[in-house]
């Protein structure tokens, strides 16, 4: 029945649309357009698979087959006696995955799931009646189509046998007229058989058509007859006619099909009239011929003939008055209209069951938006978030169908891991150890809740296979009552020691256990796109006028920031955070602000300026004006962080964001990296310069330094090449001015000389190696302490101290590290001696 209902719906909707469009544009387009539009119907019916589309007309048409199925289910359920459970026929061992006796009720009933109740379901009198009725309807349908097809074929066969005995036309004058007409019609040279003696002129035959003419037409009239039939021949109208008959046979019971077939046949004849008149230009003579073709008998189904009934001939003559040469704009408009109608009709309705939506959830982190879940739209496009009254207070998510009935709920359970807790010695800090039997923990939760365990005869807990880096384990819990599945739950364990467990559950029998499991296993953390660090090659930055040379100081910041924002767009996120595009309005490089942090915190030196541009000469800071364009502005809710405004178009506009870039030496060449935007909170508390230095320090110490200490580790302090390589990978390496190795006797040590700034100008003619310097010669701001101008800046001093620690970590047998730093206006050279990594350095 599904096939019959579905085909009837498709045929009826498409035909009604075509007829409506034809009626609206009755005389606006050419007769050819009125024929070609029917191709949409034939393609629609002949194509078993078509793409889905949100603009398909079938999205707005009720699914009659589903409505019929619901009606049958409703009628069947009404036959269940009071107190008897209605078991769906498709429920049982195959769906539940249980063995034969697992689903049996605990009151002693036995057999497969559904047992006696399913038998009662199958023996419903009304159910049997509906199945009997469906069988007879389908039998009648196929029999009716077969009878119609057989009748038409027999009729056509009799016609062909009668026409077969007609003689070939040997009249030289008539054959000459046919040849002239063929040349004029553009099919000259084609061998077309012409027979005479027919009751009326027709074109018969599908693959080898033959023209049959009547002897009642004069030579002047026969020309128009030939043009008409040759137009049928050239347009292969007999094949189109056969396809239309096939459509009619499949839809014989539908009155709309008979009307559509009659309209299509009429459109073919009018189109031939149109082409014939265009070939001859004799509209009046052709109209007079049509008057002579009035016949009481309609032409056979499988043939195309000139003659027709009085009403149809009258309509065709009136149509002649509207025949005009097609204009370019009309042709374009006609094709555009057919294209639009094709999009509406030659696509299927969107299958909502296969469509998904990403939603933000708390997940095991108990933090809203930290996780996301990919949920079928069939569960309900809209959902509500509910904060429970009991721990863990994670926001539950409840889905409802279009009728307001709950379909699925995502809730959370707290697991008791007290038996795995241990207290660390000499402290009150508790840690978790040992293994956790989560199946046992879940059973405890089920017993404690009692909400559903009290209603069920049997509860089955099953461990699921998990192929996800986001999940540790997963469990399925099924509740049965009287052999009927009443509830399914999926518990998701995120880690080895998880206290908060997301639980996806349903009591809706239309949602299968497989669908619930597949959805539950899509739980994953939401990636933070701000942590993405795009990179690219960096080159030497030189300034011949000032003699400034910074290896790795030249790179394309525009490309880096575009890569970063494009990754933001490409990152899969829920609608409340997802963006679909970005716009960059301006990029402006800024110099150090020379501000001083407003608060005292760990790492902050009171009253001191922060010379990030000297400690990291390859660093760059840009003020960026850009916008993020949300994927769904109505659902977008990512308002954290500040520093932006929402425009009237719903875009997230950052007018003054500060982007930090840094370049470092990696595998023999410099590589630039975008370190992200500075946070508004950091700028407000620490100022611009310290925020920049802190961002670069954090990246270097967390991402670069561990790799440096692994790849450039020095086994012996006496290897100057290896020591030099390690030193060249540390901050301030641009200012190194030689080193000395103490390897004659223990303790082995190293002395590193630094020179920051110079008083004399750089001599281009004399040459010399380029080094990294402050902004320009003579500008030594930032090198010296703001509090004590004759001493080195305390942040530079701190970095030198860090370098000694890095050298101790990177050189296996070094016992002491000496640092000497000179600068033109220092009262004394800065000196730092480290005897071992556990004692503080002395100056």
From TrEMBL:
All copies of the Peptidase M56 domain together span 3-319
What keywords were assigned to this record? Membrane, Transmembrane, Transmembrane helix
Is the keyword Transmembrane in the record? yes
Where does the record place the region Disordered? 82-123
**Short name of one Pfam family for this protein?**
Peptidase_M56
Q: What start-end ranges are recorded for coiled-coil regions in this protein?
A: none
Q: Which residues form the DUF4825 domain?
A: 712-823
Tell me where the transmembrane regions lie.
6-25, 32-50, 136-156, 239-261, 328-349
| Keyword Lipoprotein included in the entry's annotation | no
Q: What is this protein called?
A: DUF4825 domain-containing protein
* Species whose genome carries this gene: Aminipila luticellarii
């Amino acid at each position: 029945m599904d096939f019959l209902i579905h085909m009837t719906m498709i045929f009826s909707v498409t035909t009604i649309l075509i007829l409506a469009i034809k009626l609206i544009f009755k005389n606006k387009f050419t007769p050819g357009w009125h024929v070609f539009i029917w191709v949409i119907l034939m393609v629609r019916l002949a194509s078993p698979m078509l793409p889905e589309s949100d603009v398909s007309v079938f999205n707005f048409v009720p699914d009659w087959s589903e409505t019929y199925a619901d009606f049958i289910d409703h009628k069947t359920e009404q036959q269940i006696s009071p107190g008897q459970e209605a078991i769906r026929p498709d429920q049982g061992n195959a769906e539940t995955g249980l063995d034969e006796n697992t689903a049996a009720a605990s009151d002693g009933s036995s057999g497969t799931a559904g047992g006696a109740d399913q038998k009662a379901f199958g023996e419903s009198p009304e159910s049997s009646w509906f199945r009997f009725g469906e069988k007879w309807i389908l039998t009648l349908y196929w029999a009716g189509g077969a009878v119609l097809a057989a009748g038409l074929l027999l009729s056509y066969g009799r016609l062909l046998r009668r026409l077969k005995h007609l003689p070939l036309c040997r009249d030289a004058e008539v054959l000459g007229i046919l040849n002239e007409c063929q040349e004029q019609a553009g099919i000259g040279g084609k061998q077309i058989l012409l027979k005479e003696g027919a009751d009326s002129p027709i074109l018969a035959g599908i693959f080898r058509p033959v023209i049959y003419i009547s002897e009642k037409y004069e030579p002047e009239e026969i020309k128009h007859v030939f043009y008409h039939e040759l137009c049928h021949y050239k347009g292969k109208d007999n094949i189109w006619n056969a396809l239309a008959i096939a459509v009619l046979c499949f839809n014989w019971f539908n009155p709309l099909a008979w009307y559509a077939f009659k309209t299509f046949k009429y459109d073919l004849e009018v189109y031939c009239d149109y082409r014939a008149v265009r070939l001859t230009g004799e509209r009046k003579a052709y109209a007079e011929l049509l008057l002579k073709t009035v016949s009481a008998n309609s032409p056979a189904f499988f043939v195309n003939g000139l003659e027709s009934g009085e009403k149809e001939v009258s309509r065709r003559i009136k149509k002649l008055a509207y025949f005009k040469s097609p204009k370019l704009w009309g042709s374009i408009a006609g094709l555009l209209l057919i294209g639009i109608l094709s999009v509406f009709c030659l696509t299927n309705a969107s299958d909502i069951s296969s469509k998904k939506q990403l939603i933000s959830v708390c997940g095991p982190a108990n933090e809203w938006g930290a996780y996301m879940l990919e949920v079928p739209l069939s569960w309900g496009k809209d959902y509500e978030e509910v904060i429970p009254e009991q721990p863990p207070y994670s926001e539950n998510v409840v889905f409802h169908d279009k009728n307001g009935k709950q379909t699925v709920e995502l809730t959370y359970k707290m697991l008791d891991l007290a038996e795995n807790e241990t207290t660390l010695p000499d402290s009150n800090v508790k840690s978790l150890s040992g293994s956790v039997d989560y199946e046992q923990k879940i059973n405890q939760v089920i017993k404690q809740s009692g909400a559903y365990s009290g209603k069920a005869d049997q509860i089955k807990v099953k461990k699921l296979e998990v192929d996800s880096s986001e999940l540790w384990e997963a469990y399925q819990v099924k509740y049965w009552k009287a052999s009927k599945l009443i509830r399914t739950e999926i518990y998701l364990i995120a880690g080895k020691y998880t206290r908060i467990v997301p639980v996806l559950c349903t009591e809706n029998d239309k949602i299968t256990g497989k669908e619930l499991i597949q959805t539950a296993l899509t739980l994953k953390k939401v990636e933070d796109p701000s942590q993405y660090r795009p990179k690219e090659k960096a080159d030497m930055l030189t300034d011949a006028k000032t003699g400034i040379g910074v290896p790795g100081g030249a790179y394309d910041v525009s490309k880096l920031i575009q890569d970063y924002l494009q990754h933001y767009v490409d990152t899969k996120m829920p609608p409340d955070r997802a963006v679909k595009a970005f716009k960059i309005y301006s990029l402006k490089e800024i110099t150090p602000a020379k501000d001083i942090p407003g608060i005292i915190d760990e790492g902050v030196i009171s009253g001191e300026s922060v010379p990030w541009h000297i400690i990291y000469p390859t660093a760059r800071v840009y003020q960026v004006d850009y916008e993020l364009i949300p994927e769904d502005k109505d659902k977008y809710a990512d308002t954290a962080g500040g520093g932006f405004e929402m425009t009237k178009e719903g875009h997230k506009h950052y007018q003054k964001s500060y982007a930090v870039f840094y370049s470092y030496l990696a595998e023999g060449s410099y590589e630039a990296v975008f370190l992200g935007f500075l946070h508004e909170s950091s700028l407000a508390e620490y100022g611009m310069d310290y925020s920049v230095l802190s961002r670069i320090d954090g990246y270097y110490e967390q991402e670069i330094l561990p790799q440096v200490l692994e790849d450039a580790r020095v086994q012996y302090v006496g290897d100057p090449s290896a020591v030099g390589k390690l030193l060249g990978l540390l901050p301030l390496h641009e200012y190194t001015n030689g080193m000395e190795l103490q390897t004659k006797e223990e303790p082995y040590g190293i002395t590193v000389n630094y020179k920051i700034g110079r008083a004399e100008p750089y001599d281009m003619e004399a040459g010399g190696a380029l080094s990294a310097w402050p902004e320009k010669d003579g500008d030594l701001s930032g090198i010296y302490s703001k509090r004590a101008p004759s001493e080195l800046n305390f942040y530079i001093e701190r970095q030198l101290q860090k370098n000694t620690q890095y050298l101790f970590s990177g050189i296996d047998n070094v016992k002491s590290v000496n640092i000497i730093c000179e600068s033109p206006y220092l009262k004394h050279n800065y000196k730092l001696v480290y005897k071992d990594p556990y004692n503080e350095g002395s100056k």
